[in-house]
Amino acid sequence: MTVDATLHNDLRVHYSPVGASDRFALGVTKFLRFIADTFFARKYGHRAVVLETVAAVPGMVGATLNHLRGLRRMQDDKGWIRTLMDEAENERMHLMTFVAVCQPTPFERLMVIAAQGVFYFFFFGLYLIAPKTAHRLVGYFEEEAVISYTHYLAEIDDGRSPNVGAPAIAIRYWNLPADATLRDVILVVRADEAHHRDVNHGFANEMAGLPQGTVAACPPHVDLVPIWRMSA
Ligand SMILES: [Fe+2]
Ligand SMILES: [Fe+2]
User: Fold this and answer.
1) What is the pLDDT of residues 214-227, one digit of tens each?
2) Which ligand is nearest to the CA of 200?
3) For the chain, domain boundaries
């Protein structure tokens, strides 16, 4: 795996689909992007909150299914489980961060519940029968996330959204300076998304026997620790 520290904000990074499975993954992504664009338009804070509740699902599903597979086959996971769990936790921290900035409407909360009901089972089924397609799908989701957060940055830079102070939870998690702003947080979140993009395309490639490609560097964040260690 080659790591590149400059790839995090490159909107041109796109994996060209090869074959029906990749095209299916891209088609689903473009369809969901269209729905998100129609519903949220320029409400970037609301968009971030609702979409991060979905973004945190695939990592945990992938970790669960790789865990079960490792048990069944009595084989090492080559680090996949921890990687996917870290992705799920990282996406949940995105959610915790944006919900501190933007309160979802009651209708959006309802949407989140409905979306989770549908998406969890869809993604679980997809990962069970076609894990390569599932990772490709996440790779494409993350390509879109990088684009959306770039739009959010432009929104702040053009003065259409206030550049408020960074939430305390984000300052702690990414170890940001005390005077960090929302803009600083979006930069680091976007870099996370670019990292997930490349890791998931890399996993799909590995399953397809293709070269892994370059991975955008993951911004450092603290490890979430179990309760027993917190009190130790
Ligand atoms: Fe995210
Ligand atoms: Fe993401």
Assistant:
1) 999 999 999 888 89
2) 2
3) 5-12+19-222
Q: In terms of C-beta density within 10 A (0-12 exposed, 13-18 middle, 19 or more buried), how is residue 82 classed?
A: exposed
Proximal ligand: closest to the CA of 140 = 2
Q: For 8-46, what is each residue's pLDDT tens digit?
A: 667 778 999 999 999 999 999 999 999 999 999 889 999
Domain topology for 5-12+19-222: Ferritin (1.20.1260)
For residue 41, how far is its CA from the centre of ligand 1 (angstroms)?
Answer: 18
Within 13 Å, how many C-alpha atoms sit on residue 120's CB side?
12
Residue 55: name the closest of 131, 139, 114 by CA.
139
Reported residue count of the chain is: 232
pTM of the model: 0.94
